[in-house]
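Reopening this one. Same input as before:
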Amino acid sequence: MNQTLALSPPQLRSMAKKAAVIVLGVALITLCAKIRVPSWPVPMTLHTLAVMTVALAVGPRLATATFLTYLAVGAAGLPVFSGTPERGIGLAYMVGPTGGYLLGYLAASWISGALAEGRGTLGRTGAMLAGLAVTYALGLPWLALYVPVADVVPLGFTPFILGDLINIAMVAIGALFVPRRLIGKIGQ
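Same output, byte for byte:
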């Protein structure tokens, strides 16, 4: 018995809208990954700005789908990560020193998006800080696989925390100019 699933025009529009949001989100994350200050073993980028912007704008499900797509595109070998292709590509890059931060940003996409839903400026800022905390909680132990434990904080936290907090402040201020009813709803 052969049955075909037919999607209605509104369903097709909804799927196309979500796909467009994901593609634009991946493009934003990639652009922010490429804007960097070279440093070793972790480059300074605008990843936090992009991840938090997407999480607040589209909510947890689409934000997570967007970052998963970004990881899949990178795993497939496209040079979307900071320092690619010169620092490696694909899975080899993903299991390198920044791999834990990538996993952290994936978790932060969900956590920040979910905690920010329906919240005001302080609640959204707290949601982004929670996502950032998870990013560091996953990134720093992973980095310890590549550098001496005594160097983890000086190399993987101290140079980045101020910039990450500024990025979060910029997203929080930017969200003030978006109608509250749209926060977390873009693409839905």
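So the earlier flakiness isn't reproducible anymore. For the record, The first strand starts at residue 36 and ends at 37.
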